[in-house]
Fold Aminotransferase.
Amino acid sequence: MVSKKIKSITPSFTINISAKVAKLKSEGKEIIDLSIGEPDFMTPNAGKITAKEAIDHNKTKYDMVPGLIPLRDSIVKKLELENHVKYSTSEIVVSSGAKNAITNALTAILDPYDEVVIPAPYWTSYPEMVKLCYGVPIIVQTDKSNDFKLTVKQLSEAITDRTKIVLINNPSNPTGAVYSKEELEPLIEFCINHNLIILADEIYERICYDHPFVSIPSISERAKEITILVNGFSKSAAMTGWRLGYTASNIEISKAISTLQGHLISHPSTIAQWAGYGALKEGSEDMKHMVSIYKNRRDTILPILNQLENVGYVNPQGAFYLFLDLSAYKKFYNNHDSFSIAFCNQLLDEHQVAVVPGIAFGNDDYIRISYATKIELVIEGLHRIQELLSFIKK
Ligand SMILES: Cc1ncc(COP(=O)(O)O)c(C=O)c1O
């Protein structure tokens, strides 16, 4: 009954894990859930207030397809002030979450069989999104020694005459790695010279701990011209349920995205857009507070990670994830198709800790832990991981 296209799509690993956790909880089990990529903070107050005002003042009708003008104006200001890149209001299209922003961008650019380069490890939805938009995901293996960041050499080996887009997620989910300006510049130069569009998913951009974040389109006028910037409110403003994201791109692309959005969803809920407007206008202290807490957690966790036996990890400089290398333990799971799935199932069933298997991100040697949850739980979760590792070795 359903299309071949939908049959080629893998259901989301993270959603499957959440379903399993919910089932175990409903059976009365206490689970430490380190699998979710959702901030444990609430919507900034300013956002709640503007959303309530919008309802009370009946700002509940259809509005402009690319988004409310006051919201797009404040996105323009944010990008200029915080990310040092100047867009016009008409270059912004507000969407229902960054997910919708990414699929808008892919749909606007890709013809059937066009290729999209995706560095692995990748956020689990990218390859499926590319397939849904009739493209072909080209997964590029990157190096652990470089914190899994894409290099020009790897990119040059991956492109063909069908390559249209290079996807760069910075800071990265699942690794927490962050690209420096020096690492981005040659990649951008390569994309300019090879007529490639950069789809820059910078949704974790505010959650960046050690160095000022460098946004790809801020690097040069040419970088801006070839980049579709994706950002949103889910992670840095803890507004996951409002479903609010956006793209910033050149006018040809923003018009194309707006045209297709006009037919698909018109625009995201106006109430959500007013909430985003409030959060951007007056929520910056709340957002800074959240980032300082994530940073404290990261700093508390690192010494514990260093004590885990034979466990490596990617240096977490941003986002709120830890990507742990458990390859030293793979040999104990030889009779399983996927090491990371078998390990995560055992951890959940026997130690009541939920984490995400690395295979969901294209690397079966790893597991992903989220620290967007109370630090005591993360510490307890890591202790239980150590318990399981010690048990496996015996
Ligand atoms: C890298 C990355 N991009 C995009 C998204 C989607 O965000 P949104 O909730 O705004 O759709 C996520 C959510 O987990 C993510 O991790």
The chain has a mean pLDDT of 95. Residues 37, 97-99, 123, 169, 173, 201, 203, 232, 234, 240, 245 surround pyridoxal-5'-phosphate (CB under 6 Å). The CA atoms of residues 278 and 327 lie 46 Å apart.
